[in-house]
UniProtKB/TrEMBL annotation:
The keyword Transcription regulation does not apply. GO terms for molecular function: L-glutamate N-acetyltransferase activity; L-glutamate N-acetyltransferase activity, acting on acetyl-L-ornithine as donor. CDD domains: OAT. The keyword 4Fe-4S does not apply. This is Arginine biosynthesis bifunctional protein ArgJ. PANTHER family: ARGININE BIOSYNTHESIS BIFUNCTIONAL PROTEIN ARGJ, ARGININE BIOSYNTHESIS BIFUNCTIONAL PROTEIN ARGJ, MITOCHONDRIAL. It comes from the Bacteria. Its main location: cytoplasm. The record marks A183, T184 as: Cleavage.
Length: 397
């Protein structure tokens, strides 16, 4: 695989557009992804029991297994909006289908923003009328889906499948209300590979566990979390039909890389964040335990605030491990920024001033060896800052 410059429309047969529909002040706030032909679709959604209207609609789209367009608005989540909110999501679906002469059931609808407000359908309708399939603002799509994000988040890879070049592109948004099992995040992936829907869904569901489900910013799981993958099959002779094939393994590896890259971009752009935190757990008896422990460490408010303050307080890390480890942990080796601070669960001498300086870097790495097995897990998050409190104290919901 190789990373290339591009955008969500880089795979064959895709295009995109973005406009300012006046949902937000001045900024782009309505975007669309279109495929020339109906595409296989796979999706994973929030585990929050309160699901936004578009999530309910998109689950039905994914159940049918085919999609040709995704329309996204930012600023308003269309969550906890009752029957009117569901009707508005369905109207958005119908309006886009009519605009581009698509099957209505092949249109996915996504929203992000403030919970509890109804969509201004007059603005949505006017905005849809202005979207274009030929002369669109393709690069603007990654911006149009943002809320409190500070940067666009996108990545594109090429890989050889069946002797042909396949392109896979991903874009996402997410900054706050981010917590494992999905987050206030939307992620969209397009590819021109040809693949059976059941295989794509299986692949995506597995990849999510070690990527998007391994990030946390603030411990809150959103109502709108959605990851959708469209595969339109327009890369000639590049087809995946067998999950035991080398092509399946290759494509899955690229999909995992894209999801991990996007997940880390979200973690690094956490609301008010100044540092990306990566936690690597090794020596666990099983992968689930390793992942859960890594998430507990990176999600601990005490760990996050210590990292913000460049305080090498390793006791907070050990406490986090003990809270969720389903087995005895009595032989832990702990490193922070490469400095050994604990060996055989016993403190070792280290230069606190030097380590504190290392904790001022943009990326902080914590490595925990549990010495109880051979399984590993990684999680990503960010520090917890004064700015996070300011943003969320003023963010009307």
């Amino acid at each position: 695989m190789k990373e290339i410059k591009g955008n969500i429309a880089s795979p064959k047969g895709f295009t995109a557009d973005a406009i300012h529909a006046e949902l937000k002040f001045q900024k782009l706030d309505l975007g669309v992804i279109l495929s020339e032909v109906p595409a296989v679709v796979a999706g994973v959604f929030t585990t929050n029991k309160v699901t936004a209207a578009p999530v309910q609609l998109d689950k039905a789209v994914v159940a049918e297994g085919v999609a040709q367009a995704i329309i996204v608005n930012s600023a308003i989540a269309n969550a906890v909006t009752g029957e009117e909110g569901l009707n508005n999501a369905q109207k958005t679906q119908r309006l886009l289908a009519e605009k581009f002469e698509l099957n209505k059931s092949h249109v996915a609808v996504c929203s992000t923003g403030v919970i509890g407000k109804q969509l201004p359908m007059d603005k949505i309708a006017l905005g849809i009328s202005k979207l274009s399939a030929k002369n669109g603002h393709i690069d603007g799509f990654a911006e149009a889906i943002l809320t409190t994000d500070t940067v666009k988040k996108e990545v594109v890879y090429e890989v050889e499948i069946g002797g042909q070049t396949v392109t896979i592109a991903g874009v996402c948004k997410g900054s706050g209300m981010i917590h494992p099992n999905m987050a206030t995040m939307l992620a969209f992936i397009t590819t021109d590979v040809k693949i059976d829907q059941a295989l794509l869904q299986k692949m995506l569901s597995e990849v999510i566990e070690t990527t998007f489900n391994q990030i946390t910013v603030d411990g809150d799981t959103s109502t709108n979390d959605t990851v959708l993958v469209l595969a339109n099959g327009l890369a000639e002779n590049a087809e995946i039909t067998d999950e035991n094939s080398a092509d399946y393994a290759t494509f899955k590896a690229v999909l995992a890389q894209i999801c991990q890259t996007l997940a880390k971009k979200i973690a690094a752009d956490g609301e008010g964040a100044t540092k990306l935190i990566e936690v690597n757990v090794t020596g666990a008896p099983d992968e689930l335990s390793a992942r859960m422990i890594a998430k507990q460490i990176v999600g601990s408010s005490l760990v996050k605030t210590a990292i913000f303050g460049a305080d090498p307080n390793w006791g907070r890390v050990i406490s986090a491990i003990g809270q969720v480890a389903p087995f005895e942990v009595s032989d832990i080796e702990l490193e922070i920024q490469g400095d050994l601070v604990l060996l055989h669960s016993t403190p070792v001498d280290f230069d606190q001033a030097e380590l504190s300086e290392k904790l001022k870097k943009k990326v902080v790495v914590i490595d925990a060896e549990l010495n109880t097995g051979d399984k590993t897990g990684t999680a990503w998050g960010c520090d917890l800052t004064y700015k996070y409190v300011e943003i969320n104290a003023l963010y009307h919901s």
